[in-house]
Design brief:
mainly alpha, 4 helices, rod-shaped
Length: 100
């Protein structure tokens, strides 16, 4: 039979990289992970909603009845710069001379 070597004392080592990043940050060994940027909610922006409301009000005031693709055209116009939307609504609000 062969002789077994005598047991020797081994120093315990802790691997600091064995933890997840959040735990390492809590222990002071690393930076916290970056927080992902929230995705914008789907749908029109508040500016587009305000533009659409202004266009809808101007169309109603002008007595225009919507049909067919009008909703799609209004959506496209609502994406314009607010100054451009103001110009369009001003055109709609201008009184027309029925004699012409």
């Amino acid at each position: 039979m062969t002789e077994q070597p005598a047991p020797r004392r081994v120093e315990r080592r802790i691997d600091e990289s064995a933890a997840d990043m959040g735990t390492l940050a809590d222990m002071g060994y690393g930076q916290p992970p970056p927080v992902p940027v929230a995705k914008p909610l789907p749908g029109p922006s508040p500016t587009e909603q305000a533009n659409e409301a202004a266009i809808q009000a101007a169309l109603t005031e002008a007595g225009v009845t919507k049909s067919g693709r009008d909703e799609q055209v209004i959506d496209v116009l609502a994406k314009l710069d607010p100054a451009d939307v103001e110009a369009v609504t001003r055109w709609l609000q201008t009184k027309k001379d029925p004699a012409k």
